[in-house]
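Worked Example 4.2. Consider the chain below.
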Amino acid sequence: MCKVLAELLGVDDPLFSIGIHQLEAASGQPGTDVRLYSEIIRKTHQKTRELGLDPKDTTAEELYHALLGLIKKHDEFLARRLGATDPTDVQDILPRIVSFVNKLDTPKSAWALKPATAKRLLKLTPPKKIMKQLGYRSIDSMLKREPTAELFVAMRFVESQEWLQAFTRKYKHLSSRDFETRDITFINLDAKKWGVTAEAYAKKQRHNVTHMKEMGVIALLPLPLSRLPGITVAVLPLVLHYLNEIRMYSTYFKMQQVRPDFGDVIVKTLVHDPRNHAKVAGHDVHWRNVQRHFGKNGTHVPEIFEPHVQAEDLFWRKAEEVLYRIEPALHFWHEMDYVALKTPGGIVSFCLMDAAVNYVNQLPFGMHVIHQFRASLWSELFVRYIGQPALEYQVLQQLSQDAAKVTGTENIFDQMFL
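Applying the procedure from the previous section yields the following structure tokens:
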């Protein structure tokens, strides 16, 4: 099973197999990889049949186009749920998505930079290209007239990568006093202000959604098209995905707020996004997988996370789960984000976000993307191992030890298990 999972993930088989064996031995409950792969095969066969195809007599390309056909239908269903009459009308759909997500009954709070702190940072390092694009000579004048959250988003696609990293390194002087808990902001950027540069960025990314973790803001970039089939099913899941991402990093930052090097942690996370928040069987574990494990139900909070992190902070709900509650037809994609079929013709992803990106960009088979599936499969694999008592113990012990080093207190975790 290791070999097939390695092929699905696109990684070196011998090294991957060694890693799986290490995780299996450490967990004390072998067979996790076998069960996961068996589940993937079962789900691909089931969904292929739901598409009206025979799993034994369907080519990869036939399956791919069947999934795109379903995405087309589901895009139309979602657009109607948003109140749109034309599912291809970009100018109508994008504001509807922002309005819809703002009203969505799901946790949307995040621990983000205070507006006053954000303005102070902009004054220290004025974004000259943004000022030029908007026609301002004075940073004070721009800050007085333009939304701060919008300016932070614009850094992504107007300023250079070098400038952005230099700006982010100024965060090393931040403390927990520079952050506050507030709702995540959703913005639909104006094409007249940001059109050319934003459109170029969206074309490069193959989608028009971006975000700034530290500001707690998600933005929809303007597109150069007035009509675009698939716009709803491509954009809405991405917005929900970034909602999870911002809340996930927010929780991690809250966990680190008592550290004397808090500002350095912020910089390191935003610039390099290290994956070594914990280790199991010699493998680095990203905080994303820790949060997904403990946030499944949104109710259980290990004692070591308190008092800074509450149950709501850990809440994690996949985009597909939110969407099928809005439109029941989309249940087809529920728990399919880590599922794909490997065929002689190539890998076909059953992940909604991959299928949506492929459809909206009209990508032919062979040029299609499977990035989100692979990221989801990696997460699913680690979350299943972390969920086993022996490895969960290791993760919590390491997090508790890190907290004890920072605060100079006893290891609460050891007290619980001695």
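The mean pLDDT is 89. Residues 231-255 form the longest helix (25 residues). Compare this with Example 4.1 before moving on.
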